[in-house]
């Protein structure tokens, strides 16, 4: 390829990437912008790219005068617990699917695939009716149980693909060296799938953090609301206080985005079933 | 150290049979090589001895003790894998000491065991490194060190040199042989490379399609191959093979073009039986045309430095002849070759078995 | 041969049986916690939900729960909202998947070759996926709101709008709001999946093709696409099904309005269940949706089988 052609190609490539980055970041940027626009300038400076005077009054309000910190805390508890439990369950199940060829494996895979396909809204009613006699509606525990079940299938597939990338020789060598299979699994294989574990934790945390429908359905009191529910009620209460709503939105974004930024590299790796060579 | 007895072993994966009845007795301290082409079942047999595969039928005894139902960790054997299977997140020292740490061995015993193995294998300077910082040959040695430290009843090797380049393979072959001489351990070694088999083995077990073809010392298999498979597999360059018919009146073998190769003794075969004749390249004397013998056209000349391989065509078949001299023979020349009866290997063309 | 089995033999057989059982149950031991949870929390409610479709279940009415046969389905057949929701679902899923796929593929192709800053660019461009879906909905709703958002004004300035209106209140075009939010949120998923598949293609194939004289487009057509085809097929299938079930954005941005113009089947189910608390009717709708989606999946799988057979 001739030099000018190559340079033009590179410029086009970088330009396209830049466009995507702008498209990806612009809405978030706008959220940030409105959240730091003081109330008096909100309507007059609606279209400007940055307010003439930035202020953190909305953040202060949200943090000090609303239930938001509680919503945030509840979400952290629920998402963290879900991510942790799912990772444990998915590691074991993913290991089983990766290493063993057994009758019923086909059925398990089919079952998990099936769960990804049907409308979860369909389960809203039955789950409500099942959990209410157990006293698990309107509780964080009930929510965690539901979220764990929903996320285990995909997490299992993710962990399985990571396990597939580790040669079976390693367990065999460990078992010949004197380890039981479980020891080989926990001492040798699991440490090597740290990227997979990170990816699963991050993915499940993000998924639980964003879940709306079941939180809406199962939680009715503000004391145990997770932030999606909290934010929505916030929105309806303060239907014109955009600045505060956006500040709440930005605050809600931070954990999910941070987590995701750390683990997205591993997700791509995991989906390619990255090989681990000794 | 221990003896290993394999009796009546059969293995099938579902409906597909892989091993059809293997019987083998390995003596204490012996170095036995299982050799054969890919898919012949040698690795399956090794893994069954290790406990990594189930035994469909038959029995395996290590040191007289039946091990069919024992876990690998209870069989007291060590294995060197083709891919080395070193634990990537542990250092060389940790890799080698893993089995001892599992058994809660005292720290001083671990340290002395590791340093002993390390000095034998020249690994002293590498103890703190991770596998990814090692070369292929070094990883191989760590894999062996891990096995030695166990002081097991037997060593199992699963094509350990296949991943190395030719030069390194030569070198490691020598080191494995020296190690065996110093440790005297019972060893079972699987390979598809017949040179490794010839140089390392006390006895070779040649396998094909799940059946043992021949068991014997390397020279046994070289000098008296039991069938066509062994004859063609052992030895490099490979044995020449061509077809002929047995003529009881002679006795002689008649080949294409009407040539008759006289035999010293009659064969235990009927007149007219199809015969496959084998003769090793180094056993075909080549002389100038007209010096007596069968005239042959030279089709190809391969100088190896050590000698020359001549591809000659006496009658229908092309034969390779190996001479230790630097021949000035050129392609297209005519030479005279002889097929001395004492170097002929005669096999029944149908069954492939050796004829006496 | 003795008629009585040798005691050592018996013991050996016992041990062998135990070992066999232990080995066979190992995979189940590892996978049972996950399986039990899935069965309890997803399959049992599924069965229950299917049964609700045939019963009268209202949350506020303690006397409900009786069997009503196909009553709900009869009502469904005549429910105009439902038919409209079906049409909207097609529109919603079709447009979302198309744009997500197209933009995701382009992004994946752009990220496939290494360049300085790729790691940062990749992280930034995948960020929308981390944003909780409903927050992305709210965010875009605000962007489209002429009071605080720039988009109506810019679209007006560009001449696409005749006035800086909120697209979400326009019955004709309201659907585009959630679709755009969905595309923004969903492109990273497609891009990540396709990128992973692209990176699995051996590089020497491209090199061989270049030597053979193929240009960039030809290489894409004859190497990239065939390798990518299975991944594309599965991903599109799964995402179409998933997006058809995805009600969050619609509920948050338009709540089905204006005048039910953006109501899709999934959000309609939610409205019936959550707002009107008519679990029976909601379950009936959900069952119909499930059957439709299963039929769709089966169709695609059959299509793929026939294509494979022809190849």
Verbal overview:
The complex is a heterotrimer of chains A (278), B (356) and C (311). With 278 residues, chain A is mainly α. Chain A has 13 helices and no strands. Chain A has helices at 3-35, 39-42, 57-65, 68-99, 105-115, 121-131, 140-164, 169-177, 181-192, 194-210, 213-218, 227-237, 242-271. Chain A is globular. Chain B starts with a strand and ends in an 8-residue tail after the last strand. Chain B has 356 residues and is α+β, with helices and mostly antiparallel strands. Chain B has a six-stranded mixed sheet with strand order 6-7-8-3-9-10, sandwiched between helices. Chain B is built from eight helices and 20 strands. In chain B, 24% of the residues lie in helices and 32% in strands. Chain B has helices at 42-50, 92-102, 107-121, 136-149, 166-183, 194-200, 218-223, 228-233, and strands spanning 4-13, 16-26, 31-35, 57-62, 65-66, 77-80, 154-158, 186-191, 203-208, 211-216, 240-247, 252-254, 260-262, 274-279, 286-288, 294-303, 308-313, 319-323, 334-337, 345-348. The mean pLDDT of chain B is 89. Chain C is mainly α and 311 residues long. Helices cover 72% and strands 0% of the residues of chain C. Chain C has twelve helices and no strands. The radius of gyration of chain C is 27 Å and the shape is flat. The interface between B and C is small, with 3 and 4 residues.
What is this structure, in a nutshell?
The complex is a heterotrimer of chains A (278), B (356) and C (311). Chain A is mostly helical. Chain A is built from 13 helices and no strands.
Q: Please outline the major beta sheet of chain C.
A: none
* Structural class determined from secondary elements of chain B: alpha+beta
User: How large is the share of residues in beta strands of chain C?
Assistant: under 5%
Strand order of the largest sheet of chain B: 6-7-8-3-9-10
Question: Helix segment count of chain C?
Answer: 12
Task: Pick out the low-confidence regions of chain C.
Answer: none
End-to-end separation of chain C: 60 Å
Largest sheet: number of strands, sense, barrel closure of chain B: 6 strands, mixed
Q: Report mean pLDDT of chain B, rounded to a whole number.
A: 89
- Which structural category fits the helices and strands of chain C? mainly alpha
Count of strand segments of chain B: 20
Order of helices and strands of chain C: HHHHHHHHHHHH
Order of helices and strands of chain B: EEEHEEEHHHEHEHEEHHEEEEEEEEEE
Distance between the termini of chain B: 39 Å
Tell me the radius of gyration of chain B.
Answer: 25 Å
Rg of chain C, Å, rounded: 27 Å
Largest interface: A-C, 86 and 92 residues
**Quaternary structure state of the chains depicted:** heterotrimer
| Secondary structure: helix percent of chain B | 10-25%
- The coarse overall form of chain C would be flat
């Amino acid at each position: 390829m001739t030099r000018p052609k190559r340079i033009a190609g590179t410029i086009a490539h970088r330009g396209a990437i830049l466009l995507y980055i702008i498209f990806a970041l612009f809405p978030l940027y706008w959220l940030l912008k409105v959240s730091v626009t003081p109330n008096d300038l909100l309507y007059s400076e609606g279209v400007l790219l940055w307010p003439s005077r930035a202020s953190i009054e909305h953040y202060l309000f949200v943090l000090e005068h609303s239930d938001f910190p509680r919503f945030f805390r509840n979400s952290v508890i629920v998402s963290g617990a879900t991510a942790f439990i799912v990772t444990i369950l998915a590691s074991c199940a993913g290991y089983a699917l990766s290493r063993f060829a057994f009758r019923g494996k086909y059925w398990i895979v089919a079952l998990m695939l099936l769960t990804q396909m049907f409308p979860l809204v369909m389960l809203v009613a039955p789950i409500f009716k099942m959990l209410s006699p157990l006293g698990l509606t309107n509780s964080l525990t009930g929510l965690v149980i539901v979220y764990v079940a929903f996320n285990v299938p995909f997490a299992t597939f993710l962990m399985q693909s990571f396990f597939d990338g580790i040669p079976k020789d390693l367990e065999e060598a460990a078992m010949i060296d004197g380890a039981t299979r479980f020891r080989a699994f926990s001492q040798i294989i699991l440490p090597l799938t740290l990227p997979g574990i990170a990816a699963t934790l991050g993915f499940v945390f993000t998924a639980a953090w964003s879940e709306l429908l079941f939180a809406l359905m199962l939680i009715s009191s503000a004391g145990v609301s997770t932030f999606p529910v909290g934010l929505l009620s916030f929105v309806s209460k303060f239907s014109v206080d955009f600045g505060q709503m956006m500040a709440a939105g930005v605050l809600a974004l931070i954990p999910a985005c941070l987590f995701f930024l750390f683990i997205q590299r591993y997700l791509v790796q995991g989906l390619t079933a990255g090989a681990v060579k000794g | 150290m221990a003896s290993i007895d394999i009796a009546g072993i059969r293995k099938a994966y579902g409906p597909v049979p892989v091993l059809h009845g293997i019987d083998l007795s390995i003596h204490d301290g012996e170095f036995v090589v299982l050799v054969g082409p890919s898919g012949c079942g040698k690795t399956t047999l090794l893994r069954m001895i290790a406990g990594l595969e189930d035994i469909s039928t038959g029995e395996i005894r290590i040191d007289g003790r039946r091990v069919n139902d024992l876990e690998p960790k209870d069989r007291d054997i060590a294995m060197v894998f083709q891919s080395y299977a070193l634990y990537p997140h542990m250092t060389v020292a940790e890799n080698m000491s893993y089995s001892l740490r599992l058994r809660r061995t005292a720290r001083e015993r671990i340290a002395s065991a590791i340093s002993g193995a390390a000095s034998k294998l020249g690994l002293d300077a590498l103890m703190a490194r991770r596998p990814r910082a090692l070369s292929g040959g070094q990883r191989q040695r760590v894999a062996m060190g891990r096995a030695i430290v166990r002081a097991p009843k037997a060593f199992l090797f699963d094509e350990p040199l296949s991943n190395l380049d030719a030069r390194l393979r030569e070198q490691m072959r020598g080191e494995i042989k020296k190690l065996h001489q110093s440790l005297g351990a019972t060893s079972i070694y699987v390979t598809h490379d017949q040179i490794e088999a010839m140089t390392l083995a006390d006895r070779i077990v040649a396998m094909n399609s799940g059946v043992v073809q021949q068991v014997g010392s390397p020279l046994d298999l070289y000098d008296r191959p039991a069938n066509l498979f062994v004859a063609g597999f052992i030895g490099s360059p490979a044995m020449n093979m061509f077809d002929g018919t047995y003529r009881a009146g002679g006795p002689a073998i008649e080949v294409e073009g009407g040539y008759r190769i006289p035999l010293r003794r009659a064969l235990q075969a009927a007149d007219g039986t199809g015969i496959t004749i084998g003769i090793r390249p180094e056993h075909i004397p080549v002389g100038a045309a007209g010096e007596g013998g069968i005239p042959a056209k030279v089709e190809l000349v391969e100088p190896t430095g050590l000698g020359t391989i001549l591809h000659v065509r006496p009658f229908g078949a092309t034969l390779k002849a190996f001479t230790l001299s630097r021949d000035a023979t050129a392609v297209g020349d005519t030479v005279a070759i002889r097929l001395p009866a004492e170097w002929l290997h005669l096999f029944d063309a149908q069954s492939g078995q050796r004829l006496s | 041969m003795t008629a009585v089995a040798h005691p050592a033999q018996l013991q050996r057989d016992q041990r062998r049986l135990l070992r066999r059982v232990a080995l066979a149950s190992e995979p189940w031991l590892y996978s049972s916690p996950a399986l039990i949870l899935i069965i309890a929390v997803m399959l049992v409610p599924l069965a229950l939900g299917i049964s609700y479709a045939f019963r009268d279940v209202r949350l506020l009415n303690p006397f409900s729960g009786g069997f009503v046969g196909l009553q709900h389905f009869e009502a469904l057949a005549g429910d105009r909202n439902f038919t409209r929701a079906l049409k909207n679902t097609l529109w919603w899923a079709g447009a979302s998947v198309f744009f997500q796929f197209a933009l995701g593929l382009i992004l994946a192709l752009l990220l496939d070759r290494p360049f300085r800053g790729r790691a940062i660019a990749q992280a930034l461009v995948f960020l929308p996926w981390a944003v909780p879906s409903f927050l992305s909905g709210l965010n875009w709703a605000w962007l489209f709101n002429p009071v605080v958002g720039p988009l109506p004004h810019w679209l007006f300035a560009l001449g696409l709008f005749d006035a800086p209106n909120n697209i979400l209140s326009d019955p004709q075009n309201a659907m585009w709001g959630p679709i755009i939010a969905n595309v923004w949120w969903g492109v990273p998923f497609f891009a990540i999946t396709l990128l992973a598949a692209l990176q699995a293609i051996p590089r020497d194939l491209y090199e061989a093709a270049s030597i053979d004289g193929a240009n960039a487009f030809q290489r894409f057509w004859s190497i990239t696409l065939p390798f990518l085809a299975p991944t594309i097929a599965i991903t599109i299938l799964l995402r179409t099904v998933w997006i058809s079930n995805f009600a969050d954005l619609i509920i948050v941005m338009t709540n089905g309005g204006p005048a039910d113009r953006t109501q899709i089947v999934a959000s309609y189910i939610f409205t019936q269940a959550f707002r009107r608390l008519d679990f029976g009717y909601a379950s009936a709708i959900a069952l119909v949706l499930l059957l439709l989606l299963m039929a769709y999946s089966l169709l695609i799988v059959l299509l793929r089988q026939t294509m494979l057979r022809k190849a």
